[in-house]
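W.,

You were right to be curious about this one. When I first looked at the sequence I had no strong expectations either way, so I just let the prediction run and decided to look at it fresh. Below is the sequence, 468 residues in total, followed by the output.
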Amino acid sequence: MKQSMMLSPSRFLYRKLNILNQTHSVCPVCKTQIEAEVFEDNGQVFLKRACSEHGEFYDFLEEDAGYYRERYSFDKPGTDSNRQTVQAKGCPFDCGLCPSHRQHTCIGVIEVTQRCNTHCPMCYAHADREKGDLDIQTIGRMLDFYQEAEGGQVEVVQISGGEPTLHPDILKIIQMARQKAKYVMLNTNGRRIAEDEEFVKGLSQFRGRFEVYLQFDGFSDAIYSSLRSPEFKSIKLKAVEQLAKYQIPITLVPTIQKGINDEDLGRIIEFGMQAPYVRGINFQPVARFGLYDRNLSGNAMSLTGILKRIEKQTRGETRMSDFIPLPCNVERVAVIYFYKQDGKFVPVTRNARVRDYLPMIKNTFAFNLEDILAEAEAAFSNGQLCQCMAFLKDFMPIVPPDLMSKSREERIRYVDENTFRMSVTSFVDLYNCDLNALKKECVHMITPDLKRVPFSSYNMFYRTGKGG
């Protein structure tokens, strides 16, 4: 019996396992597709699989089995989109998307450069090269392809890298993306934003359907020494300050590693809710591919591990039960939306029967409070509230009666100051690989050869051709 997550093999010997799910996975050594079982033990969830060549593997999946079981009650059938490849070798070896994938693209990631201005020790993109900018024509073709693949309705484009702010045409690229997508994110480490105010001023032209997706791992030098670079604490704080000065919305993106920054979640939340123009936080358990040190795999975090720590570190002000599994990817994403009431952010889910309204929630990561506010105000101001919109009654306390009559700038300012979102996104790697979850992943790489590849698949199998 082998172990790839430092689990004691004797823990599961001579015991009847409580099987929760039958699935498929891959061998973490040879990456061959193999059968797998998900089982519960002592309130936690594990993955068991066996390779004919390399033996059995037991790996940790989730800290909370109750959440794992309950999340499937939020599951919805996927939204289809155009396919680029055929199903031949089986998941995950036909990516493109192939017909076995069960979800469309909620977020399309375009890596515009492989260059970077830092050298993070756990970089998933191997972004330490000096060259590698995509030309504008290639990026334009990728955006056209993405739009066509989604039937002309692109939800979110995330401009990434490497460090995308190093691309000489980054402002032009953002403008191009805005012409195709409902929403655009700039995924950045924040160094140029902290050091180049003129650049930040240039970003301010995109307010309204744009945000900066800012790496932000905590507040101590030790955290950044482990995950990024020691000087990055001051860089992150300066970047937030610069973006707020120009009223540019920010989502903080902490990568969480057990024993390094998993005790900083409450502080990050408190900072995010108080800092001007921080609109949300997306916590991500560290994904074990790229430059990640496999010897640290035993310190892996899970989605429910983060939810538990959030509840504890916020002293119950944000509860595990406030989060809902994202309907388009219940296996790997949990979300929560807040509105400001009496000067304090309150979870929408405390006062709304979200499960009752599941059929009305779109299959998209872009389901957001801005849409709810606009739909609610319009429905009630017109005196027309059909049965399918009845769920909006639960959201009416957060909608100013004259919201839609205000100017665009006033509406943007209201949303920036009075709404907040939080999510946890757990990607699939060779250690927690459940192919059922991978088939529902809705964050996809848009590649220069015009394919869509799930983010996790790309980093495990396609980035280097050697399993990440």
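Here's what jumped out at me. Residues 70 and 196 are 47 Å apart (CA to CA). And, maybe more interesting for your project: Residues 1-5, 379-392 have pLDDT under 50 and may be disordered.

Coffee later to discuss?

I.
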